[in-house]
């Protein structure tokens, strides 16, 4: 008998190791040890050092692989790098020696991903982005203090925060209260499309920036019940400044995190730009957070509780202004270590529009579905008729399967444990390679084909998929806090777009790249022709 530790090291149960091992490893490979002794298990579990992976060089580790012209790893093509590692080394791969970072173990096996998630206990730890952690916990500690939100925050501080906002953020009915606000922002976006498209109905090259503005405006309505005016003809200066700061933040993240981390030694120009960007994001968000607080104070008891923004609800429930404003800030700055949510949502929308533009036969099915659910061009979208949009929902899922904006997610081990048949020590970052798994024939039949049908109930393709292959919003206690809002925002916007337009793309096919979200590379020169014409 032996005490078993889960990923964060707490002892869960006393159990004979072979029995435990069977519970966590369903593969036949380990069946034989069931009849053996605990010593047999030790012989079967392989040492950490034997996990295959690219070998580090003395001093430069594996970081040299990111050096242009010398190395073969490209920061904006981590998708292709991950695919190559999988093909070369198999389902469990170790990436060690990235200077300034702990070892990483990549998992390309849904059974192992499930095992790690299922063993998660109350305080799961998602690997932090050291530069963001430094910003929150060292550089701007005076501002964030102990209540640093959920991003790059762990342990009891994370739990304390998350437990206060979980219900408000994750209950499906909470999100549905915002349908009208989300719908009216989506309508503004459609008006904006009509305004900016040219005589051939094509939108300008910087259309992604317009989608970012929609997403930011939508988020401001949900989080703060404030109109930022992002989609106005002359948007306030600070809205574009906020989008630019977030883009700067993104462009600098991979350089700070994956290249040689000189920023730890001195203020490199990239690091300075990064900090300036984070400060701008914080200041601009705080301005709108204060406006929202003032509105609440002014209207006091007259406000209908159902109409409150997420931040106002937290304020109302917890009576803690600091907690409410840090949540709102996190909603804008949801680092998830490399991502900011409104860009997450907007990149997903960009990718879905592009996929449907290049798959007109699938778009046609959406038109048919919407024609029956929303028969007139002015039929409103409601919580009830959204329930029937199963094909549109399937198209969203299929795009996020093939092109998940977050190509991999992860957890950090806080104690020695066994993963994938290997001993894995404390402090290792386990990376779930969802992009690679989702595009593998082994896990999805016809994986390289865009087949939304596979997500429809009772479809035979659907039954074959392992539920832990495609997890665009993560899983477990640390899963995406904004999942419900993101799904609702995307569904309403896309339903409105396809209710009104036929969307086409007449140019060269776009590749995808990491920027640092996984997104189509190149201008989204879509055409939006009115269906009624
Ligand atoms: C399509 C849009 C989105 C995608 C694909 C996405 C994806 C993700 C993923 C993969 C994670 C990590 C989950 C895990 O570790 O298991 C995450 C975390 C998070 N997301 Fe999202 N997200 C999206 C939109 C949003 C929105 C709109 C919000 C807020 C309104 C949001 C708030 C958060 C927060 C706060 C976390 C951190 C949770 C924690 O660590 O406790 N996300 N998201």
Automatic annotation (TrEMBL):
Binding-site residues for heme, renumbered to this chain: 480
Keywords: Heme, Iron, Metal-binding, Monooxygenase, Oxidoreductase
Listed InterPro entries: CYP11_CYP27_families, Cyt_P450, Cyt_P450_CS, Cyt_P450_E_grp-I, Cyt_P450_sf
Pfam families with a match to the protein in the record: p450 (PF00067)
Stated name of the protein: Cytochrome P450
Listed cofactors: heme
Transmembrane segments: none
Keyword Iron: yes
Keyword Oxidoreductase in annotation: yes
Span of the signal peptide: none
PROSITE patterns: CYTOCHROME_P450
Single GO MF annotation: oxidoreductase activity, acting on paired donors, with incorporation or reduction of molecular oxygen
Similarity remark: Belongs to the cytochrome P450 family.
Organism in which the protein naturally occurs: Rhynchophorus ferrugineus (Red palm weevil)
């Amino acid at each position: 008998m032996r005490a078993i530790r889960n990923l964060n090291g707490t002892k869960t149960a006393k159990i004979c190791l072979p029995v435990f091992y069977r519970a966590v490893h369903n593969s036949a490979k380990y069946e034989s040890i069931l009849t053996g002794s605990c010593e047999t298990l030790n012989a079967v579990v392989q040492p950490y050092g034997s996990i295959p992976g690219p070998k580090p060089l003395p001093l430069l580790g594996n970081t040299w692989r990111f050096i242009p012209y010398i190395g073969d790893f490209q920061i904006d093509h981590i998708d292709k790098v991950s695919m190559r590692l999988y093909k070369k080394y198999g389902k469990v791969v170790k990436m060690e020696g990235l200077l300034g970072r702990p070892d990483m173990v990549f998992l390309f096996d849904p059974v192992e991903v499930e095992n790690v998630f299922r063993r998660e206990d109350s305080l799961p730890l998602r690997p932090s982005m050291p530069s963001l952690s430094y910003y929150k916990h060292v550089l701007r500690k005076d501002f964030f203090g102990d209540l640093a939100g959920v991003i790059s925050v762990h342990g009891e501080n994370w739990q304390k925060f998350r437990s206060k906002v979980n219900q408000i953020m994750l209950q499906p009915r909470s999100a549905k209260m915002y349908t009208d606000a989300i719908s009216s922002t989506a309508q503004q976006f459609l008006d904006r499309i009509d305004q900016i498209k040219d005589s051939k109905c094509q939108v300008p090259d910087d259309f992604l920036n317009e989608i970012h503005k929609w997403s930011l405006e939508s988020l401001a309505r949900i989080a703060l019940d404030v109109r930022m005016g992002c989609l106005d003809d002359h948007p306030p200066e600070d809205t574009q400044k906020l989008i630019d700061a977030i883009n700067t933040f993104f462009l600098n993240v991979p350089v700070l995190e994956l290249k040689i981390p000189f920023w730890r030694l001195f203020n490199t120009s990239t690091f300075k730009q990064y900090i300036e960007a984070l400060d701008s994001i914080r200041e601009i968000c705080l301005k709108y957070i204060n406006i929202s607080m003032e509105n609440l104070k002014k209207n006091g008891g007259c406000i209908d509780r159902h109409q409150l923004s997420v931040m106002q609800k937290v304020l109302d429930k917890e009576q803690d202004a600091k907690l409410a404003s840090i949540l709102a800030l996190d909603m804008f700055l949801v680092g998830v270590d490399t991502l900011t949510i409104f860009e997450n949502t907007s990149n997903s929308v960009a990718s879905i529009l592009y996929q449907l533009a290049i798959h007109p036969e699938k778009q046609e099915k959406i038109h048919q579905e919407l024609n029956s659910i929303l028969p007139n061009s002015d039929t409103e979208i409601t919580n009830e008729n959204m329930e029937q949009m199963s094909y549109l929902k399937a198209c969203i899922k299929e795009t996020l399967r093939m092109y998940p904006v977050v190509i991999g997610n992860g957890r950090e081990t806080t104690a020695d444990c066994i993963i994938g048949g290997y001993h894995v020590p404390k402090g290792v970052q386990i990376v779930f390679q969802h992009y690679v798994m989702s595009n593998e024939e082994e896990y999805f039949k016809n994986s390289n084909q865009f087949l939304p049908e596979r997500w429809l109930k009772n479809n035979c393709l659907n039954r074959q998929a392992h539920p832990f292959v495609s997890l665009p919003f993560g899983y477990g206690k640390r899963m995406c806090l904004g999942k419900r809002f993101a799904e609702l925002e995307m569904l309403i916007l896309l339903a409105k777009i396809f209710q009104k337009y036929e969307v086409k793309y007449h140019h060269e096919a776009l590749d995808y790249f990491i920027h640092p979200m996984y997104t189509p590379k190149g201008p989204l020169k879509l055409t939006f022709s009115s269906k009624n014409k």
